[in-house]
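Work Package 3 (structural annotation) set out to generate three-dimensional models for the target panel prioritized at the project kickoff. During this period the team completed the workflow that converts sequence records into discrete structure tokens, so that structures can be stored uniformly alongside our sequence database. As a representative example, we reproduce one entry of 352 residues exactly as it appears in the project archive.
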Amino acid sequence: MKLFETLGELGHEQLVFFHEPHSHLKCIIAIHSTLLGPAIGGLRMWPYAAEEDALRDVLRLSQRMTYATAIAGLDFGGGKAVLIGDPERDKSEALFRSLGRRIDALGGRYVTLEDVGTTTCDMDHVHQETECVVGVRGARGDPSPHTALGTFQGIRACLRRRFGHEDVGRVSFAVQGAGHLGHHLVRLLRAEGAKVFVTDINDERVEEVVAESGAEAVPMAQIYDTDAQVFSPCAMGGVINEDTVLRLRCQIVAGGANNQLESNECATELERRGILYAPDYAINSGGLVNTALELSGHDAANSKRRVMATYDVLTRIFALAERDGLATWQAADRVAEQRIDAVSRLRLPYAR
């Protein structure tokens, strides 16, 4: 990877590498934009096979976070942190406190929150060293229920667009991922009487979801082949690629995972096959909205109202796509870019 060339192409402001041998800290923080305010984005912990994979992930995720905050109407920019390590084995108080000190040294330019592989307990340790963290215990906590609620509202908008109704109970779903987010989404879907297939790399998680909700377990490799009308990715990114996109039998892709598409070519293939795609950063911003508004001092009732507005965001995207002959992801990008351009002219880049 040509690092500075890539940063220029993606438009990043800052990329920071942190290494502390005693606590085994290996972390990359990417600040994509502070034009709308301090960069906010999750802290992901994952056992990346190669350091370049972690770098590629943090650059892509931070860029999309800029679009997510913009399209959700938040006065925050986009950032992301990736912590290289196995979340099942490598966590410690020292690790997260060490990272908290590094985040604090950024002077308020980056605010972190829970993401894949991290928990509210981990955020508590980060919080011991910096105020630049949200989603700690005793505040709004785990953002997953809010991400699931926003995703659920976005799914309703998709059903209206594709089927002309919002009756979730009349539709079947294939949910990929039974972690915090997937588990909460399955609960919401099953509460409406929907048929739900679920899978995860962790069999115990699947068993727990199945026992609680009555969903049907599906092997990981077969989730793309179900006849569910909605495929809902709620785990890692890049799951819709040149191989899996051809296997999908659904009519809608709408889930809470980040970077669901491996490439824009996959989005084109979805369009060609008549599959409605809900742009990931537009539908999965509920947790981000809730935690960002926590920082701004909004109460829980107002935050919930803003999360529920995911329905309106998706409806606007679909209307723009139809009016201008765009793919849904292009319409979402246009909405985000227009707000960034308009609002950023009102202020200088964020500084503490």
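The two ends are 32 Å apart (CA to CA).
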